[in-house]
Every structure is written in structure tokens, then in C-alpha cells.
Amino acid sequence: MLWACIVLPQLALDAVLRRLPDPGAPLALASGPTQLRTLHAVNAGAAQAGLRAGMRLAAAHALLPTLATVEHDPQAEARWQQFLAAWAYRHSSLVSAQWASCIVLEVRASFHLLGPWPRIEARLREELAALGFAHRIAMAPTPRAARVLAGLQDGLAVSNPAAMQALLDRVPVRRAVLPGDSGERLQRMGIRDLRTLRDLPRDSLRRRFGAELLPHLDRLYGDADDALSYYAPPDHFDARIDLGFEVESHTALLFPLRRLIGDLCTCLSIRDGGVQRFVLRLEHDVHRHDTRAHTDVEVGLLAAEREPAMLFEVTRNRLERVSIPKPVVALRLLARELPAFVPASRDLFDVRAQQALPWPQLRERLRARLGDDAVHRIAPAGDPRPERAWRRIDGDDARIDTAPARPPRPTWLLPQPVPLRDPRPRIVSGPERLESGWWDGDDARRDYYVLETAQGQRAWAFTPAGERDGWMLHGWFA
Amino acid sequence: MQAVASLDSLLAAQTLWHAGRHPATTRDGEPTGHAALDALLPQRGWPRRALTELLLPADGVGELALLMPTLARLSREGGTLALVAPPYLPYAPAWQAAGIDLGALQVIETTPRDALWAFEQCLRSGACAAVIGWPRQADAQALRRLQVAADSGDCLGFVLRDRKHAMNPSPAALRLEHDGDGWRVRKCRGGPAPTRAFAPGLH
Description:
Helix content of chain B: 25-40%
Radius of gyration of chain B: 17 Å
Number of strands of chain A: 18
Shape of chain B: globular
Number of domains of chain A: 3
Number of helices of chain A: 15
Largest sheet of chain B: 8 strands, mixed
Structural class of chain A: alpha+beta
Number of helices of chain B: 6
CATH topology of the largest domain in chain A: Alpha-Beta Plaits
CATH architecture of the largest domain in chain A: 2-Layer Sandwich
Structural class of chain B: alpha/beta
CATH topology of chain B: Rossmann fold
CATH architecture of chain B: 3-Layer(aba) Sandwich
Shape of chain A: elongated
Number of domains of chain B: 1
Oligomer: heterodimer
Strand content of chain A: 25-35%
């Protein structure tokens, strides 16, 4: 493996500068309590006037009255590091933002795709410059070595482990990014470079400098594996389209909606995922003093999907059922969960009609218009009471058991038993005594009969146990 | 010569029949599972890509028993069955006992207003092997739509309606009416309607 390290020496400052119209004007990041404001970082314009990081703010203002200051935000720095990790992810599948203000990525695997290292390096530099981030880049066989080399000299590249060890041997301990203050302490003890450090007895080093130093050295030289925490792309999708004008009709929303769905599906296919539940948020103008700033359209599917046409149609159906209370100024699509997508396997020689729609898509179309519970399947359940001997199945994945063997059952069941209207039904078979449910408060003691009515219908009716009157109709043998 | 050829083609297309002679029909119907009923129907089974109408005096006269063998076979072959707006709860143990693979049986609950739309969508999609519907308000025009949808979706469509509609014209390819004793063919595409009734229990 070969690791490139991109050191971002002034990440916090660049993040502020890139949104300013004139990055050359003197600017400083200030931090610390109100009584003791100090400069965290200064840009080139401020440095020219003699300002340095760590200087008191009052002194800086005395030197340069036109100095603009921006509050330093450590969280923003972490956010921008994540942003750059996402950017680096397109050049490599192994990216780590584990160490502050630098990004490490594995590049050897990318050589086939992007060309040799000089070309990749040029590309990284070009894109970072376009993004507006100052950077130093180095490459080495271990990530920690790449980090050390990037700190020493911009553009250093070593691909041979032996050459890297020779190079590292000459690195002064103060510049070797050792854990804690060990570098400074070793320097004061008269240890100049890493070679001398490595020659020292390991036991005494561990005693004096703690457990961290030796594993760090081993990983630096590639003698031990370095398990980094790798960057993973976020597990959600969030995109927003500003309409720029007020929209009050559904049809005008359909075009931006199609673009949002398209973006979502692109993201899904990159992640090789699907979407099962998302929210389309219609944002209203907030200047009018109303409580509701947006209207949410929830879209829930029974299985993960990523077909753009199908998602668009389902969303459109849901959208058209929502009344738009106020003009819409922006559309936002939020998908919190992007589950794995399993495409339906299809036979190569499957004969299908030209415009045939697979069942999942048809189901979602039906659910979009008829309601979320409109489509279901049925399965037998274990309870002997007829009203509990079956259950609904929503969604795809449920095992359907075989019902226990019982006397013939009707194909139609009435949701509620009703009195049978026929005055003199003919008894075909029965009774079947059914006595159950004393444990859950829904006690049933019934004698079931199969009856034939005057119209020729086969009915399934019951009477209270032991009686032959007061027929209650419970099903039809259709 | 020209006239003879066109007569043959007319006979082949079944637009012209020989009076008194049994018409030669393409016997490519979907077997009903009842040998006696197959023998009655000109296509020797349910007409494919078409609508079949069952006219009932009341619910529970054996209408599902008539369909069950076909539905069981289709579901076991992996086809999806859709019930659109059934009048009662389909009782899972009984359907399973009749041989239906319940994994393939989809129940669609709708309001009467949306039932026709859902019915047409299911027929037209091509995702279903058979669709059974109980439309409450279906006129000839709606049935015509369903017939066309069944044709384009390559699907067996079954409409179960009250017997009072028997007098109204219908574009369904096959109409069966239950008259208390058995099923009577009221109309069938591809031949004259047989006069004999079919009673499932007697055969």
C-alpha cells in the first residue's frame, strides 16, 4: 500500500477565506475568553503587517487597525475536514480523517484508474487549489510516514519501504509528530533523530515515555499494522432546490421534483443502496409570521427501491393528494435511511409483456393512491377461534405457515358475525364445538354448523354451545 | 378464386360460422380445472387475455369454488393473484386448504370509488396472473375498459357481480350466470352459448 497525506496547515482559516470576496485583506481568527482574546491564525495580508498566531488581539489591533476578525470555530474545522474527506473519497476508497488537520488516503489501488503518482498528485493539488485550501502533500508506504514527510517537505514521495526507513532515520525527533510532548522531551535529552531513538532499549523507553511511543514508532516504520478509522460516506441523502419564486400549483413542482429524485437515485446507485422512506419538504416563505414554515410529504415504500421513474410517480401521487396551504419557495428531499437494495432476480428468458410492470412497482402505485394499508397478504394463524385464525402480512418478508388440519372452513369470513336472516336453514353438517380463549378475556363457546339457505348459499354459522337457535352467520362457503 | 379465399379467411377468423356445424375454435383457453365446464366452453377453458363475468344471485353460491382450481394452479406456478375490493375477509386457512399459495395472493382494499381504478391497474400492469374484482358501480363502458386492460396486460380477469346485471350488455368474453342449480353460459366468444348448465357437484 502507498499512502498519500494531505496536510492542511491552515484549514480553519481557509474555510473562512474561501467565502470572502477579497481573501487578501488582512484577517485573523480570534479565540479564547473575552478578557484574553488571542489570534488563532492569520492570513497572508495580516502576516505582512507583522501579526502572528498567538498574539493578543489588543496588540494586533494596535499594529493593524483595519484587521478583520472572525471567531474561530473548532467544530467548523472538523466539518470541513469531513468535507475534504468526502472529496478525497473520489480518489481512493480508503480515506481517513483520523488526525487533526490532515487527510490520509491510500493511492496505490488508484494507479490503474487515475494514472501514476505524479498525475494523481497534480490532480489533487489542482482540485484543492480550486476549492481554496492550502496544502502539503507527501507519499510514503505507511500513513504515519507520509504524515511526517508532508510536514518536512511538500511533494516528497517515497515508494520503497527501505528508502523510507533510511529517510525516516534522519528525521529530527521534534519534527517526527511523536505522541504527546515526547518529541520535545527526547530533544532535550539529547536524542537528535529517529535512528538514535530506535537504537535505545525498548523497555526503558516504554517506562519513561508511556505505552504509546513504541507502537507509534513500529507503525511509522511499517513494522506493525496501522488500523486507521476510515471515512465512510454519510448514510443519508439531503438535497434542496430553491425555486426562486413562489409556487402555488402542483404541476410547477413536478420539474424540480424530478431533478431531486434523479439526484437521489444517482446517490443511491453510487452507494449501491435503495430508499424505503423519505420526506419531501415543501418550504414556505418564513417572512410571513406563521407557525408552519413547511409542509411534509411522507413517502414510505414496502421495499427498498431505486428506480427513478417509479419513485417519481409514487412521490407525485402523494404530492398531488396534499393541499398546498401557502406558496412554496423551496423543495427539499430528506432520506434518513438508505437500506441495501436487492434487485429482483429475473430470468434471462423470461417472457414479459412490453410495458409490463413488476409487482412491487404496481403495489407502490396502488398504495400511493389507496393508502398505506391498502395492499396486504393473508396467512393462517394458530388460534382456533376463526376471527383470530388468520393474520395480515404487510410487506414482503414473512413466512407463511400451514394451517393445522381442521374441519372444512369457509372461504369468506364475515368481519363480525351477524344474525342469519334465513328462518329455516337446512343443516348440512355439524356441530363442531369450539371452546377457547378463556385465558385472554375473549372467551368463545360456540357450535359451528354448515347450513344451506333457501337461496342455495352455503353458510357457516354458529349457535351458543348446546343450542339450536339464534344462528349467527360467520362465513360463506363460496 | 378470390371469393373462395376470402370466405376461408372469414371462417378462419370466426367472423362467419357454418350454421348447425360446430365451429372450429382455437382451444387455447386456460383450463378451468372442471372437466365438464371445459367441455362446455368453446375455448376449452377460461378465455385468455380477457374478462370473465360471473353473475351471482347471492354471495356464497360456490363462485370461489368454481375459480379455485385455476387460481391454485396459477399461484403454484408463481403467478400473482389479486383480489380487488373483496366483499368479505378471505379466510386464510380455507384458501390454503384449497391449494392456493398464500404468498402469491394479494388483497387490495379500496373504497368503491377507487375499486375500478385499482382493478384496471392490476389488469393492465401485467404483474398479475389473475385479478378478481367485485366492482359495485360498473357500467358497460367501465367493463369495456377492464376488458381492454385485461387484453393489454395478458391477464385473466374475473368480475363477480349481482345477477340483476344479466340483462345489461357486457363486453366480457365469457359470462356465466348462477341460476340456483348450476352455472349457465350466457355469452361466450368464439361460438354459440351452450344450453346445458354446469353444476360442479354433479360431475
